[in-house]
Model the fold of this input.
Amino acid sequence: TSQPLQAAATSHHPYIYYYILPLSLVTMTVTSAAIHIGAYVSDSPAADSIITVKASTKESLSSCLSSSKVNSASLQSIDIFLQSSELLSHYDSLALASLVQHLGSHGTLSVHVISDGTAKDDTDWGVIMTSFVLAGLKTESEQRVGGGGRVFNARKPAKTKAASAPMRLNHGGNKIKVTLNLDDDDDDDNVVIPNNVELFTSPLVSFE
Done:
């Protein structure tokens, strides 16, 4: 509940009444998400800046954040927690591509595999590394934790815009236009270029 009604005097108004809101009612900005997969349960205290969501099944992992109304590109980090015995049955390597849309540029995503006594040296961790690649994340580190568990960390790269601009080339005072498409396997495409003209091209280049 709010504090008792308070009064303050100003030069223009004898009294202005206001309420003092308790800290628990102040809206905090959510910057991180913790996703608990399958049977994993955490005893860590809740934090105002972290939203915790549950993905009970493998199929629910990809939509768990959007179902919780998390805005796109609003998070600085996503932490996924699951038990080692449920790695193959509950971790969806294709789901991360849907989750990373909620990360801002340079945001981090970590997968915490908690050992429940089933993690072995021959455990196939490739499913996690593959999921990073499919989601367009840059793998940063892999850490061993107690009992044979692992923590895999990756980062979302910043968006880059490919610069493209027309390039003009004059040869003998005459304009020439050259279009090269190196993705085309048609051997019948021929481009004739004067001997004293040197071109440096990307897969698709147009000169006018």
Observations:
- Residues 126-134 form the longest helix (9 residues).
- Residues 5-11, 21-27, 197-208 have pLDDT under 50 and may be disordered.
- Residues 50 and 72 are 15 Å apart (CA to CA).
- The two ends are 72 Å apart (CA to CA).
